[in-house]
Structure formats: structure tokens, C-alpha cells
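Morning F.,

Quick status update on the modeling queue. The single chain you submitted on Monday has been processed. Sequence for confirmation:
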Amino acid sequence: MRLTERLPRETGRDYALRTIKDSIIRLELVPGSMVSENELAAEMGLSRTPVREALIELSKAKIVEIYPQRGSSISLIDADLVEEARFMRQVLECAVVELCCGKTDAPELHKLQENLRLQQFYQQDGQVYTEMVMELDNSFHALLFQMANKSQVYKLMENMALHADRVRSLALSQIRDDKIVQDHEQLLQAIQDNEPEQAVALLKKHLNRHDIDVKAIREEYPTYFK
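C-alpha cells below.
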């Protein structure tokens, strides 16, 4: 499990939740595998309580299954939930980019531009870019929700997005897609130019790049799927 530093004022529960989520997305916690509260707590330097709370939260999103007196397991990938996650993201984010259009004085604009510069930088190194692409992509889209004053909507969407993110992670480990950076550049330009229809069209094209062939991924990793 990849550990990062605990953020300032981050509770043990939130740190456990963030760390476990990241490990699930990266497939470091393999679908179908059993996990131990004690082992996770020891690895993160926490007590069992915040780890248990994090696992309960993830069970609500059906990404973790809890078996009383037996432990917990990482849920197998459910193709129906993957599709539902994609549907939710497209509906919400299309509305968000429309709200962002014309906000040329928004402080998030500079953060989006900095995010793009980082994407362009990491694009020069194939291996590093593969490792960073999801993190930077997710940060870019989170900033759009923040710019539209819809940060809580993004947080509510995050747990459901885990289902699609696991398949996306599997696909990105095999295929490098340099067009993601170009999509972000064009989308940000449309927002700055106050062109909502163009922004929505670009967003849909971008999200369709994540329309991974689940059937092909299932054939490659049959034990990961429900």
C-alpha cells in the first residue's frame, strides 16, 4: 500500500479513507482480496477505530464488503456500477463546466493553468506520466467543481467514481493516452472564452476517452470482476 504524509488537520479516519481509496484505485488492494483492520492500521500508524470507520464508509459505496467476525474484502469490479459511475459523472460535470464558463476572475483559473503545466511537464517522461496522469486528471476536474462552487457535489461523487477509476487504472497501465492533456487545454480555453456549448462538447469527448472497453479488460483480468 502506498503511503503519503498525513495532511495538516486531517483526522485519522480521513487519512485512512484517503489512503485505502488510493490503494483500491491503484489495484494495490486487489479486487476480491481480504483486508485486515489490524494490518492496515499498523501500516498507516493508526488505531483500529479510524480504519474500521473508513472501511464502513467504503462499504456504503459498495467498494468494500464487510463480513462480521470474519473481516473485510475489496469488492470485485461490477460492470453495472462502472457504467452508473460514468453516467453520474457526465451528467454532473456537463452542468459544472457550463457554470464555469466566463468566470475569468475565478482564483481556481490559475490553479487549473498550473495543473496543466504539470501535466505537460510529466508528459515528457512516459513512465512518470503514467503514474501521475490519474492524479493530475482528477485534480483538474476537482478544481472545475470548486470553480463552480460545487465542491461538496464532487465529494459525494468521489466514492461512486471509485468503480470506474479501477477499470480506468487498469486501462492506463496498458495504454498511454497523450490526448488527455490536449483535451484539458481545449476545455479550459472554451471556459475562458465563455463558450458553454463548446465546453460541454469537449468535456463529453474527453470523458469518452475513459469509455474503456470493460469486456476487454474483463478478459485480461477475469478474477477481478463480479
